[in-house]
From TrEMBL:
Alphabetical list of Gene3D superfamilies matching this protein: YVTN repeat-like/Quinoprotein amine dehydrogenase
UniProt subcellular location: Nucleus
SUPFAM superfamilies: WD40 repeat-like
Keyword check for rRNA processing: no
Pfam family, one: Beta-prop_CAF1B_HIR1
Organism from which the protein derives: Lithospermum erythrorhizon (Purple gromwell)
PANTHER family: CHROMATIN ASSEMBLY FACTOR 1 SUBUNIT B
Keyword Transcription: yes
Alphabetic keyword roster: Chromatin regulator, DNA damage, DNA recombination, DNA repair, Nucleus, Repeat, Transcription, Transcription regulation, WD repeat
InterPro entries: Beta-prop_CAF1B_HIR1 (IPR055410), PTHR15271 (IPR045145), WD40/YVTN_repeat-like_dom_sf (IPR015943), WD40_repeat_CS (IPR019775), WD40_repeat_dom_sf (IPR036322), WD40_rpt (IPR001680)
Protein name according to UniProt: CAF-1 p60 homolog
GO biological process: DNA recombination; DNA repair; DNA replication-dependent chromatin assembly; nucleosome assembly
WD repeats: 16-50, 60-101, 108-149, 150-181
Family under the similarity heading: Belongs to the WD repeat HIR1 family.
Length: 490
């Protein structure tokens, strides 16, 4: 992995608010406060292992206000852009004698305020957008009209995501809620019409360690004081889980909140299943590499997810980048100190070769991965049929993750934290004061024996030194910050 900040004139040195890669070629689109969308061709560092770069391709001029989000359709034939003032433009690619050109085919104008995020449906026939007017709108792209308005949020909608299996859409707002909508088609004149209704409102959870029996529930997302207009969430490419930014977590009611991103399992979208804590600044965007990778081990011992393949995803905070692998407990790379102002968006190229970040300081960062550096890819994602209320195919996850608690006094002598990967227990625990009984546990990265585990029960995690891939950072190396590893929420 090599790369860094590309100090070129991206958008007249004005803030770059968004970026996205074309799904079939290494073409990068960026948008900013200069009102333009610009397309760039990425250049590899080659065998000389130089840092990657970009070459200016063309500009798309059609907005009269700042461009907050750009997203290519899954086919790559169209590009959607959302801007201040509530304007959403649809661009389409045409081949001419002079080359490929992009022209505006539709302008969608039903939002009453700035459009902050959007995403295409899997078939490219619909779009969902989120706005400062507190609403989400599902658009029929072919007709250029509003299909449905989701207006249950009470504050800005700063992130939206469309389930790749087309069953759910999700939205994240500064009203401190994440809402999950499920498609319950309505019938009219003998035809089914797509209709999303709110199924879950995720806002608060009870602390893991209760100081009293009547402990107050605490919010799990930042409020409107979060210093960013973006909370970009995303589904895994196979739809098996949803990754949500802008999270905060309190170990108990008196503890200081910890910045985190939450992972929601498709099996239960009513509450988070896992969190990725430890960032010093709030998480504002997450993005999955579009490819799935072969497992490095036939029976991985350090995985948080029981999947037949690996996913790699990036988590961006206001000032740093974490790259995670679903087969490992800790990030495989951590990069910080790249930009002078807040990160605004992240994007992967279709081949997983490039990872790009945009920033409010007017510059973008581009990283390049060498061939097979992230691993060998798999040719297809095979769903595993499970029994749920609608018999939706999802992907096999047989095991859950638990963290063995440690007391503060045991921190110095216990060494690394203990993670237990265990089979789901059907019977409830009868003795609340004793350790939970489980079956066939596998221990990861532990220096404790079974008698030590029973004695350590008050804290959920322990701080450990980060590990992972080394990154060539263009700024002077800073002391390594201690970080909390991902933990399961009980």
């Amino acid at each position: 992995m090599r790369g860094g900040v590309l100090q070129i004139n991206w958008h007249e040195v004005l803030p770059v608010l968004t970026l996205d890669f074309h799904p079939t070629q290494d073409l990068l689109a960026t948008g900013g406060t200069d009102y333009d969308i610009k397309l760039w061709v990425t250049n590899s560092g080659g065998e000389e292992k130089k840092s990657p770069g970009v070459r200016y391709h063309t500009s798309l001029s059609g907005h009269m206000t700042a461009v907050n989000v750009v997203r290519f359709s899954r086919s790559g034939e169209q590009l959607a852009s959302g801007a201040d003032g509530g304007i959403l433009n649809i661009w389409k690619s045409h081949s001419t004698d002079a080359g490929q050109v992009w022209v505006t085919t539709k302008s969608l104008m039903s939002h009453h305020d700035n459009v902050l995020d959007l995403q295409w449906s899997k078939d490219d026939e619909f779009l969902i957008s989120g706005s400062l007017d507190n609403s989400c709108i599902i658009w029929d792209v072919n007709k250029g009209s509003v299909h449905q308005i989701l207006d249950s949020h009470t504050h800005y909608v700063q992130g939206v995501a469309w389930d790749p299996l087309a069953k759910y859409v999700a939205s994240l707002s500064s009203d401190r809620t994440c809402r999950i909508y499920v498609n319950k088609p309505s019938k009219a004149k003998g035809t089914e019409r797509m209709n999303y209704v709110c199924q879950h409102i995720i806002s608060q959870v009870e602390p893991q360690i209760s100081e009293d029996s009547k402990s107050a529930r605490s919010h799990i997302f930042h409020d409107e004081r979060l210093p960013s207009f973006f909370r970009r969430l995303e589904w895994a490419p196979d739809g098996s889980f949803l990754l949500v930014p802008a999270g905060i977590y309190k170990l108990n009611t008196s503890a200081e909140p910890v910045n985190t991103a939450y992972i929601f399992s498709r099996r239960d979208l009513s509450r988070p299943a896992l969190m990725l804590p430890g960032a010093s600044k709030p998480v504002i965007a997450v993005r999955f590499c579009p490819l799935a990778f072969k497992l490095r081990e036939s029976k991985p011992s350090t995985t948080l997810f029981k999947l037949p393949y690996r996913f790699i995803f990036a988590v961006a905070t206001l000032d740093s980048l974490y790259i995670y692998d679903t087969e490992s407990v800790q990030p495989i790379a951590v990069v910080a100190g790249l930009h002078y102002e807040a990160v605004t968006d992240i994007a992967w190229s279709p081949t997983g070769k490039y990872l790009a970040l945009s920033s409010h300081d007017g510059y973008c960062t581009l990283f390049e991965f060498e061939s097979e550096e992230l691993g060998l890819t798999v040719s297809s994602l095979e769903p595993v049929e499970v029994k749920d209320e609608n018999k939706t195919p999802i992907y096999k996850q047989e095991k859950s993750v638990e963290v063995t608690p440690l007391t503060k006094s045991d921190n110095a002598e216990c060494g690394e934290m203990v993670v237990e990967v265990m089979e789901q227990a059907e019977e409830t625990q009868t003795d609340a004061s004793g350790p939970m009984e489980v079956e066939a546990g596998e221990r990861l990265k532990t220096t404790l024996d079974d008698t030590d585990i029973a004695a350590c029960r008050d804290m959920e995690v322990q701080v450990v030194e980060p590990t992972g891939a080394k990154v060539n950072d263009p700024v002077p190396t800073k002391p390594v910050r201690k970080r909390i590893t991902p933990v399961a929420i009980d």
